């Protein structure tokens, strides 16, 4: 059987806002969009649930997450790297 190439996985960088669940973190990812009429930049925030196998990330950390297969109803991302620890 021939190997089929997998699509490129999505990656996001965001800040951990909650680490209270076991092996799960909540990551807030900010993006800036331009208002269609007024031209002002607006910051929109999206929260993702990400799998953290070692419970390593803490609230306030800046992390990188990657899309993966569904692990639960809302958890389809996993922790790749902790870029910066909270002060």
Return the CATH topology: OB fold (Dihydrolipoamide Acetyltransferase, E2P)
Q: What's the rounded overall pLDDT mean?
A: 96
Give the % helix: under 10%
Low-confidence stretches at least 5 residues in length (pLDDT < 50)? none
The helix tally amounts to 0
Function: One of the primary rRNA binding proteins, it binds specifically to the 5'-end of 16S ribosomal RNA.
GO molecular function: rRNA binding; structural constituent of ribosome
Keywords: Ribonucleoprotein, Ribosomal protein, RNA-binding, rRNA-binding
Pfam families: Ribosomal_S17
Summarize the topology.
Blueprint: E1 11-18, E2 24-34, E3 41-51, E4 62-67, E5 75-84
Parallel strand pairs: 3-5
Antiparallel strand pairs: 1-2, 1-4, 2-3, 4-5
What can you tell me about this protein's structure?
By secondary structure, this protein is mainly beta. The protein has a single domain (16-84), classed as Beta Barrel (OB fold (Dihydrolipoamide Acetyltransferase, E2P)). 0% of the residues lie in helices and 53% in strands. The protein has no helices and 5 strands. The protein has a 5-stranded mixed β-barrel with strand order 1-2-3-5-4. It starts with 10 loop residues before the first strand and ends with a strand.
Features:
87 residues, mainly beta, OB fold (Dihydrolipoamide Acetyltransferase, E2P), 5-stranded mixed beta barrel, 0% helix, globular, NA-bd_OB-fold
Summarize the structure.
The chain is an all-beta fold and 87 residues long.
């Amino acid at each position: 059987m021939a190997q089929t190439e997998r699509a490129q996985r999505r990656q996001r960088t965001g800040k951990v806002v909650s680490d209270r669940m076991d092996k799960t973190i909540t990551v807030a990812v900010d993006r800036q969009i331009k208002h269609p009429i007024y031209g002002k930049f607006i910051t929109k925030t999206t929260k993702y649930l990400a799998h953290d196998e070692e419970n390593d990330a803490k609230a306030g950390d800046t992390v990188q997450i990657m899309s993966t297969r569904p692990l639960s109803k809302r958890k389809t991302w996993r922790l790749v790297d902790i870029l910066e620890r909270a002060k």
